[in-house]
Design goal:
single chain, mainly alpha, 8 helices, 78% helix
């Protein structure tokens, strides 16, 4: 009986160990990918252009391609489909990202939203919620939006 309890406590303590740097990096990459996928999913039209924007952003920002990129997209789409809020993704990013990195994520979300040339109300809402959870100030949020809009060629 005591041996079984000791094994149980050892297993619980073993599970509480710090993740490796590679595991932590993968968690950050997945959180970023899920947030981009959430913007894509927020558009009722769900265009291939927005999906391509997510893929290109992940490829450029995370330096991924090939099988690693395909696997990350698959995981992100599955995680997004089963997520009930953004907190578990943003909390990971808040712990490990600088403010500049978080602003870049918000800007990347705007770029996905503007990829098809239009901005839907739900896309706007998703980005607004995530920016708040990432502690991106209103000024930083607007700056990211304007840079993404300009990159999409939508500023007059």
């Amino acid at each position: 009986m005591l041996h079984a309890l000791k094994d149980l406590f050892d297993n619980l303590i073993g599970q509480a160990t710090e993740p490796s740097p590679a595991e932590r990096q993968h968690a950050q990459n997945l959180a970023t990918a899920v947030l981009l996928v959430e913007v894509m999913r927020a558009d009722p039209a769900k265009t291939a252009v927005e999906r391509q924007a997510v893929v290109l952003t992940l490829q450029q920002r995370l330096q991924l391609d090939g099988a690693a990129l395909t696997q990350l997209m698959l995981q992100a789409e599955q995680s997004a489909a089963h997520a009930y809020d953004y907190h578990r993704f943003t909390s990971s990013l808040n712990e490990h990202c600088t403010q500049a990195q978080k602003i870049q994520i918000v800007e990347d979300m705007w770029q996905v939203a503007y990829a098809d040339g239009t901005l839907g109300a739900v896309e706007n809402s998703v980005i607004n919620q995530v920016a708040g959870l990432l502690y991106v100030t209103h000024g930083e949020y607007i700056g990211a939006k304007m840079r993404a809009k300009e990159a999409a060629g939508l500023l007059l």
